User: Fold Peroxidase from Brassica rapa subsp. trilocularis.
Amino acid sequence: MGEQSPLKPLSSLFLLLLTLLTTTVESRLTTDFYSKSCPRFLDIVRDTISDKQITHPTTAAAVIRLFFHDCFPNGCDASILVSSTAFNVAERDSSINLSLPGDGFDVIVRAKTALELACPQTVSCSDIISVATRDLLVTVGGPYYPVHLGRRDSRTSKASLLADLLPLPSSPMAKTIRQFESRGFTVQEMVALSGAHSIGFSHCKEFVGLVGRNSTGYNPRFAQALKKACSSYPKDPTISVFNDIMTPNKFDNMYFQNIPKGLGLLESDHGLYSDPRTRPFVDLYARDQDRFFKDFAKAMQKLSLYGVKTGRRGEIRRRCDAIN
Assistant:
């Protein structure tokens, strides 16, 4: 028998420690955290996001992306919402966050404004993001999952702290897997979370350079359609294409059904099918939507607990875009 690599047990130990940490954080948070201090919290968030989603149907995708960009780098602490000042470039103005849709920021600000009127300085912006994400996911057909509450908002937000912490559409799959594993997420959880691309859109700049290359896996007719859709991109960089061309406004497993057919939009989408570590999960979710929903909900709940600040480690902001 060959020797076991020393990295394997270390990796397993690391994942175990992160799991225990998540469990500890979860024990400090509760699903009814605001039942006495702000009893209408959930209703106010739900009313706000429903009104916004009706008038701006891309809001759900915008908030889910905002949630990921807030939580994944350094934890769910609403640092993504802070505006830059003359003395500090905040996370939202880092190059990787400049394409975040404005509707995501707007709906959180609206919810916070309504909550400040009902329960001043009680509800954190990070809790608003987590609940709004879950509720908007449900409005577009996605799964429901419990959200534990009691997060505090960060007291800092620096673009310089984001260096190489968020996965890029062009990142090699090996690097993306390492980024997720370093935060305690398995390959399967990474693939499940990639299913967020079931809704939303991407700007042409994210994929137009790949279209037409023989080695990228695009369906030829799809590649031609993308070239045509992005033909004016140099003059108008705001041109975008739906991530899922079949059911763009419905959260379902069509994203995973598209990928094997060469209908994935981003390089990372094709990478999920070309890498033997991720391909089995793409196939699994393509044929079993219930399993995808179950795994996606669990992974989203886990992400919502990543790097959470409680007690004196954070604050309750009066405005989500400014540190107190």
Q: What stands out?
A: The beta strands are 201-203, 240-242. The chain has a mean pLDDT of 92. The first helix runs from residue 7 to 28. The longest strand covers residues 201-203.
